[in-house]
Amino acid sequence: MTRFTKGHGTENDFVLVPDLDGTLELTPAQVQRITDRHAGLGADGVIRVVRTRFATDDAVRAQAEDAEWFMDYRNSDGSLAEMCGNGTRVFAEYLRREGLAFGRQLSIATRAGTKTIRVTDTGYAVDLGPWRLADEEGARRDGFDVMVRPRHGKPVPALSLDLGNPHAVVMLPEGIELDQLDLTATPEVHPEQPDGVNVEFVKAVGPGHIAMRVHERGVGETRSCGTGAAAAALATRFWSGVEDDSPWTVDVPGGRLTVTPLPGHRVELAGPAALVADGDFPL
User: Fold this and answer.
1) Is 225 a catalytic residue?
2) Within the chain, which residues score under 50 in pLDDT?
3) Residue 265 domain flag
Protein backbone atom coordinates (compact mmCIF):
# COMPACT_ATOMS: atom_id res chain seq x y z
CA MET A 1 0.00 0.00 0.00
CA THR A 2 1.19 3.50 -0.84
CA ARG A 3 0.23 6.59 1.13
CA PHE A 4 -1.40 9.40 -0.84
CA THR A 5 -2.95 12.85 -0.45
CA LYS A 6 -5.41 14.30 -2.92
CA GLY A 7 -5.65 18.03 -3.56
CA HIS A 8 -6.70 20.57 -6.14
CA GLY A 9 -6.05 24.11 -7.31
CA THR A 10 -9.19 25.63 -8.88
CA GLU A 11 -10.40 22.02 -9.40
CA ASN A 12 -7.30 20.98 -11.34
CA ASP A 13 -6.77 17.89 -9.19
CA PHE A 14 -3.73 15.83 -8.26
CA VAL A 15 -2.72 12.82 -6.24
CA LEU A 16 0.44 13.45 -4.23
CA VAL A 17 2.58 10.42 -3.43
CA PRO A 18 5.26 10.93 -0.76
CA ASP A 19 8.60 9.32 -1.67
CA LEU A 20 10.85 11.48 0.46
CA ASP A 21 13.99 9.37 0.04
CA GLY A 22 13.50 8.53 -3.63
CA THR A 23 12.90 4.77 -3.35
CA LEU A 24 9.67 4.57 -5.37
CA GLU A 25 9.76 4.41 -9.16
CA LEU A 26 6.29 5.19 -10.53
CA THR A 27 5.54 3.56 -13.86
CA PRO A 28 3.19 5.07 -16.47
CA ALA A 29 0.79 2.17 -15.84
CA GLN A 30 0.70 2.95 -12.11
CA VAL A 31 0.06 6.63 -12.79
CA GLN A 32 -2.78 5.70 -15.14
CA ARG A 33 -4.26 3.43 -12.47
CA ILE A 34 -4.06 6.11 -9.78
CA THR A 35 -5.64 8.81 -11.96
CA ASP A 36 -8.42 6.62 -13.41
CA ARG A 37 -11.68 8.32 -12.40
CA HIS A 38 -13.64 5.06 -12.33
CA ALA A 39 -11.20 2.42 -11.07
CA GLY A 40 -8.64 4.58 -9.28
CA LEU A 41 -8.48 7.72 -7.18
CA GLY A 42 -9.17 10.06 -10.11
CA ALA A 43 -6.95 13.03 -10.94
CA ASP A 44 -5.49 15.14 -13.74
CA GLY A 45 -2.00 14.14 -12.66
CA VAL A 46 0.28 12.60 -10.04
CA ILE A 47 2.92 14.48 -8.06
CA ARG A 48 5.70 12.45 -6.46
CA VAL A 49 7.11 14.31 -3.44
CA VAL A 50 10.85 13.61 -3.30
CA ARG A 51 13.99 15.31 -2.04
CA THR A 52 15.70 17.01 -4.95
CA ARG A 53 19.02 15.34 -4.26
CA PHE A 54 17.43 11.97 -5.02
CA ALA A 55 16.14 12.98 -8.46
CA THR A 56 17.40 10.84 -11.34
CA ASP A 57 17.56 13.80 -13.76
CA ASP A 58 20.89 15.65 -13.53
CA ALA A 59 19.28 19.02 -14.34
CA VAL A 60 16.80 18.57 -11.50
CA ARG A 61 19.38 17.31 -9.03
CA ALA A 62 21.48 20.40 -9.76
CA GLN A 63 18.72 22.48 -8.12
CA ALA A 64 19.21 20.78 -4.73
CA GLU A 65 21.12 23.70 -3.20
CA ASP A 66 18.23 26.07 -3.93
CA ALA A 67 15.24 23.76 -3.43
CA GLU A 68 15.06 20.81 -1.03
CA TRP A 69 11.94 19.33 -2.64
CA PHE A 70 11.31 18.21 -6.21
CA MET A 71 7.78 18.25 -7.67
CA ASP A 72 7.98 15.16 -9.91
CA TYR A 73 4.85 15.72 -12.02
CA ARG A 74 3.21 13.14 -14.29
CA ASN A 75 0.21 13.68 -16.58
CA SER A 76 -2.71 11.29 -16.18
CA ASP A 77 -1.53 9.24 -19.17
CA GLY A 78 1.74 8.57 -17.33
CA SER A 79 3.91 10.92 -19.37
CA LEU A 80 6.41 13.22 -17.67
CA ALA A 81 5.69 16.95 -17.68
CA GLU A 82 8.02 19.89 -17.09
CA MET A 83 5.80 21.34 -14.37
CA CYS A 84 2.23 22.31 -13.50
CA GLY A 85 1.25 25.79 -12.33
CA ASN A 86 -1.75 24.76 -10.24
CA GLY A 87 0.21 21.77 -9.00
CA THR A 88 2.93 23.98 -7.53
CA ARG A 89 0.41 25.54 -5.14
CA VAL A 90 -0.98 22.17 -4.07
CA PHE A 91 2.59 20.92 -3.63
CA ALA A 92 3.40 23.91 -1.42
CA GLU A 93 0.27 23.35 0.67
CA TYR A 94 1.27 19.73 1.21
CA LEU A 95 4.86 20.58 2.19
CA ARG A 96 3.68 23.15 4.73
CA ARG A 97 0.99 20.89 6.20
CA GLU A 98 3.45 18.02 6.60
CA GLY A 99 6.08 20.23 8.23
CA LEU A 100 8.48 19.77 5.33
CA ALA A 101 8.67 23.50 4.59
CA PHE A 102 8.31 26.56 6.79
CA GLY A 103 7.84 30.30 6.47
CA ARG A 104 5.88 32.30 3.95
CA GLN A 105 8.17 31.64 1.00
CA LEU A 106 9.67 28.45 -0.37
CA SER A 107 11.45 27.20 -3.46
CA ILE A 108 10.71 23.93 -5.24
CA ALA A 109 12.53 22.09 -8.01
CA THR A 110 10.77 21.21 -11.27
CA ARG A 111 11.86 19.96 -14.69
CA ALA A 112 11.38 23.59 -15.82
CA GLY A 113 13.74 24.95 -13.17
CA THR A 114 13.38 26.21 -9.61
CA LYS A 115 10.10 27.97 -8.79
CA THR A 116 9.62 30.38 -5.88
CA ILE A 117 6.26 30.31 -4.10
CA ARG A 118 4.93 32.77 -1.55
CA VAL A 119 1.96 32.48 0.78
CA THR A 120 -0.89 34.94 0.13
CA ASP A 121 -4.14 35.73 1.93
CA THR A 122 -6.07 33.54 -0.52
CA GLY A 123 -3.58 30.75 -1.20
CA TYR A 124 -0.25 30.93 -2.99
CA ALA A 125 1.50 32.90 -5.70
CA VAL A 126 4.23 31.25 -7.75
CA ASP A 127 6.83 32.90 -9.92
CA LEU A 128 6.55 30.69 -12.99
CA GLY A 129 9.82 32.07 -14.28
CA PRO A 130 10.65 33.30 -17.77
CA TRP A 131 8.27 32.97 -20.68
CA ARG A 132 8.65 33.64 -24.37
CA LEU A 133 6.76 33.73 -27.63
CA ALA A 134 7.66 30.53 -29.47
CA ASP A 135 7.99 32.43 -32.76
CA GLU A 136 8.33 36.10 -31.82
CA GLU A 137 9.06 37.29 -35.36
CA GLY A 138 5.98 35.55 -36.78
CA ALA A 139 3.83 36.59 -33.84
CA ARG A 140 4.71 40.27 -34.16
CA ARG A 141 4.24 40.15 -37.92
CA ASP A 142 0.96 38.20 -38.07
CA GLY A 143 -0.38 38.13 -34.50
CA PHE A 144 -0.28 34.33 -34.52
CA ASP A 145 2.00 31.50 -35.59
CA VAL A 146 -0.05 28.26 -35.60
CA MET A 147 -3.56 27.13 -36.53
CA VAL A 148 -5.83 25.18 -34.19
CA ARG A 149 -8.89 23.18 -35.16
CA PRO A 150 -11.15 22.01 -32.31
CA ARG A 151 -13.37 18.99 -32.84
CA HIS A 152 -16.32 19.82 -35.13
CA GLY A 153 -14.90 23.34 -35.59
CA LYS A 154 -13.08 25.36 -38.18
CA PRO A 155 -9.35 26.15 -38.01
CA VAL A 156 -8.60 29.33 -36.07
CA PRO A 157 -5.29 31.19 -35.57
CA ALA A 158 -3.39 30.77 -32.33
CA LEU A 159 -0.35 32.21 -30.61
CA SER A 160 2.19 29.76 -29.18
CA LEU A 161 4.07 30.53 -25.97
CA ASP A 162 6.66 28.68 -23.93
CA LEU A 163 6.30 28.85 -20.13
CA GLY A 164 8.58 25.93 -19.47
CA ASN A 165 5.86 23.87 -21.13
CA PRO A 166 4.21 24.58 -24.52
CA HIS A 167 0.92 26.42 -25.10
CA ALA A 168 -1.18 27.55 -28.05
CA VAL A 169 -3.73 30.27 -27.24
CA VAL A 170 -6.83 30.95 -29.34
CA MET A 171 -8.94 34.10 -29.00
CA LEU A 172 -12.38 32.88 -30.09
CA PRO A 173 -13.98 35.02 -32.79
CA GLU A 174 -17.37 36.66 -32.46
CA GLY A 175 -20.20 34.15 -32.66
CA ILE A 176 -18.31 31.29 -30.99
CA GLU A 177 -18.67 30.89 -27.23
CA LEU A 178 -16.60 28.81 -24.84
CA ASP A 179 -19.51 26.54 -23.95
CA GLN A 180 -19.99 25.65 -27.62
CA LEU A 181 -16.59 23.98 -27.90
CA ASP A 182 -16.21 20.20 -28.01
CA LEU A 183 -12.96 19.45 -26.20
CA THR A 184 -13.56 15.72 -25.81
CA ALA A 185 -10.88 15.15 -28.45
CA THR A 186 -7.42 16.67 -28.82
CA PRO A 187 -7.56 19.83 -30.99
CA GLU A 188 -5.54 19.62 -34.19
CA VAL A 189 -2.56 21.98 -34.23
CA HIS A 190 -0.73 22.92 -37.44
CA PRO A 191 2.19 22.84 -37.74
CA GLU A 192 2.03 19.72 -35.58
CA GLN A 193 3.92 20.01 -32.29
CA PRO A 194 6.16 16.95 -31.83
CA ASP A 195 5.94 16.97 -28.02
CA GLY A 196 2.28 17.96 -27.88
CA VAL A 197 0.89 21.28 -26.69
CA ASN A 198 -1.65 22.64 -24.22
CA VAL A 199 -4.40 24.51 -26.07
CA GLU A 200 -6.27 27.42 -24.43
CA PHE A 201 -9.47 28.92 -25.84
CA VAL A 202 -10.15 32.45 -24.60
CA LYS A 203 -12.98 34.99 -24.53
CA ALA A 204 -12.59 38.56 -23.29
CA VAL A 205 -14.76 39.46 -20.28
CA GLY A 206 -13.57 43.03 -19.73
CA PRO A 207 -10.39 45.07 -19.32
CA GLY A 208 -7.73 42.81 -17.84
CA HIS A 209 -10.26 40.01 -17.48
CA ILE A 210 -10.65 36.86 -19.61
CA ALA A 211 -12.35 33.46 -19.41
CA MET A 212 -10.86 30.27 -20.82
CA ARG A 213 -11.17 26.54 -21.34
CA VAL A 214 -8.16 24.30 -21.84
CA HIS A 215 -7.24 20.96 -23.36
CA GLU A 216 -4.06 19.71 -21.71
CA ARG A 217 -1.68 17.38 -23.49
CA GLY A 218 -1.60 13.94 -21.92
CA VAL A 219 -4.78 14.65 -19.95
CA GLY A 220 -7.68 16.11 -21.95
CA GLU A 221 -9.90 18.99 -20.88
CA THR A 222 -9.27 20.03 -17.29
CA ARG A 223 -11.16 22.37 -14.99
CA SER A 224 -8.12 24.64 -14.81
CA CYS A 225 -4.52 24.95 -15.98
CA GLY A 226 -2.18 27.33 -14.18
CA THR A 227 0.48 27.79 -16.85
CA GLY A 228 -2.37 27.83 -19.38
CA ALA A 229 -4.04 30.71 -17.55
CA ALA A 230 -0.73 32.58 -17.59
CA ALA A 231 -0.26 31.86 -21.30
CA ALA A 232 -3.82 33.00 -22.05
CA ALA A 233 -3.36 36.27 -20.15
CA LEU A 234 0.03 36.96 -21.74
CA ALA A 235 -1.31 36.25 -25.23
CA THR A 236 -4.31 38.53 -24.70
CA ARG A 237 -2.00 41.21 -23.33
CA PHE A 238 0.20 40.83 -26.42
CA TRP A 239 -2.79 41.19 -28.76
CA SER A 240 -4.02 44.26 -26.86
CA GLY A 241 -0.79 46.11 -27.67
CA VAL A 242 -0.51 47.36 -24.08
CA GLU A 243 2.23 45.21 -22.59
CA ASP A 244 2.37 46.66 -19.07
CA ASP A 245 2.62 44.80 -15.75
CA SER A 246 -1.02 45.12 -14.68
CA PRO A 247 -2.54 41.94 -13.21
CA TRP A 248 -5.04 39.87 -15.20
CA THR A 249 -8.05 37.98 -13.89
CA VAL A 250 -8.58 34.58 -15.52
CA ASP A 251 -11.84 32.70 -15.01
CA VAL A 252 -11.66 28.94 -15.54
CA PRO A 253 -14.41 26.35 -15.02
CA GLY A 254 -12.91 25.52 -11.62
CA GLY A 255 -12.60 29.05 -10.26
CA ARG A 256 -10.51 32.19 -10.66
CA LEU A 257 -6.79 32.84 -10.98
CA THR A 258 -4.67 35.99 -11.07
CA VAL A 259 -1.80 36.37 -13.52
CA THR A 260 0.72 39.19 -13.07
CA PRO A 261 3.52 39.95 -15.56
CA LEU A 262 6.82 40.53 -13.78
CA PRO A 263 9.96 42.42 -14.80
CA GLY A 264 12.47 40.44 -16.81
CA HIS A 265 9.86 38.63 -18.92
CA ARG A 266 8.66 36.56 -15.96
CA VAL A 267 5.11 35.89 -14.82
CA GLU A 268 3.39 35.13 -11.51
CA LEU A 269 0.34 32.92 -10.99
CA ALA A 270 -1.82 33.27 -7.86
CA GLY A 271 -4.76 31.22 -6.63
CA PRO A 272 -6.06 28.82 -3.99
CA ALA A 273 -4.94 25.33 -3.05
CA ALA A 274 -6.81 22.68 -1.08
CA LEU A 275 -5.96 19.23 0.27
CA VAL A 276 -9.14 17.16 0.42
CA ALA A 277 -8.28 13.53 1.26
CA ASP A 278 -5.59 11.22 2.63
CA GLY A 279 -5.38 7.46 2.45
CA ASP A 280 -3.61 4.37 1.18
CA PHE A 281 -3.76 2.95 -2.34
CA PRO A 282 -2.45 -0.37 -3.67
CA LEU A 283 0.00 0.12 -6.54
Assistant:
1) yes
2) none
3) no
